[in-house]
Amino acid sequence: MEIEEHTASLSGENPITRLPPDIIEGILLRLPVSSLLRLRRVCKEWWNMISAPRFIKEHAYCAPKQLLLYLPKLSISASLHPKTAKPCHATVIDEKWSPSTWAASHMDPDDHLFASCNGLLCFYKTYTLKISNPATGQCLHLLKPDGILLHDFHYLYSFGFHPITGEYKFVHFLREPQRYKSGQPFHFDIIQVYTLGENKWRAIKAVIPCCMVHLGAVNVDGAMYWLTEDEGTSCGMAVVSFDLREEMFALIQLPALEVKETASCATPKVAYYMTEINDKVCVVTMSYQSHAPRWRRYNAELSGRTDIWALESDKWFLKYSIQSPSLSQYVPQPCFIHREKIILQDRDSNVWYHDLRGKNVQIEHGEEVKLLHLGDYRFYETQSYFYKETLAPLSIYARAAIVRAPPVPLAPSVASN
């Protein structure tokens, strides 16, 4: 045995290369993207294995799901108080609930995150939309459907993936200018769809004109979901789904709720939000806070009772009923529950998590676990998305866009609490 090992070392043969390919692949699937980008340069066989679409898909499936906390650029009163001007900021919370701050090289200071899907982040910019793969460092820029649009905002865009077709699609909610001026700013006649890799946006007639996309849009199992007003329901609201394969709309009725929303939404009693938990579409209902602007996408304040309903097999079931004291705690949008824990944030920009034990949960002061402090950013604008690393190359979609790749892949650095 010693003679064989000595002979192998003299011949320059690496013992790991004698392992069966399926064993090598199983080992590689457990490694982070940063390691795989280096290891695929070892030999041609490893390059082909790691670059294969099947391996990339399997690696993404095995990668742990993490939470991404994002804070948009802080520029209010920057001329009067220069210290308050700060670029956008992102923090990743891993599966062990350990926070790390990303290097900012894949984000420009004024980027505004609006979607996270399969490890790809989508940013809203003044003139373009940017797709970024933080794990590989690649990014891709797309022109907006109509260039610079009047009254255009980041929450008027969404991004999703269909697992059967393998296609990524952008959706832009094209607002009607006359409705915007009349005090109904979220009415749509048309949505615009862009399939990644094509070279044009396509207009699709919206069968349901009122869409409350500022209350969150989630992408689950090949479809997008958002809220809309519906006077014919007991609560005055419903969920719209848009199938990314068939590009068809469907209306989903909400479960029977205790408080009816007024049709005009002028004097609401209940606040609604869309979220995602364990790959299921969820609707959040909580007491409406009158000081929170109705038409602004601010984070929800936990006060009193919060119910979270999940959709499974076309039926709603109550997943959580959360009772919380009035402690000025907020939840980031749109994803704030992960691994049976809820993310909370206070007015001092401290971020905490609280265990959700069972269906009925009582938030007790003092039982939270502090994660980190976010500094001087606005506590009510924190966004939270699910994120997992991926090897997916953006260069294959470069026909109608510009792809940029830094020479060194990005890596998180440990954040201080």
UniProtKB/TrEMBL annotation:
Pfam families hit by this protein: F-box, FBA_3
Name residues in a coiled coil: none
Q: Which domain of life is it from?
A: Eukaryota
Q: Which organism is it from?
A: Sorghum bicolor (Sorghum)
Q: Where is the F-box domain?
A: 13-59
Concerning InterPro entries, the annotation shows: F-box-assoc_dom_typ3, F-box-assoc_interact_dom, F-box-like_dom_sf, F-box_dom, Gal_Oxase/kelch_b-propeller, SCF_F-box_component
Against PANTHER family, the record matches this protein to:
BNACNNG10540D PROTEIN, F-BOX PROTEIN CPR30-LIKE
Q: This protein is called what? A: F-box domain-containing protein
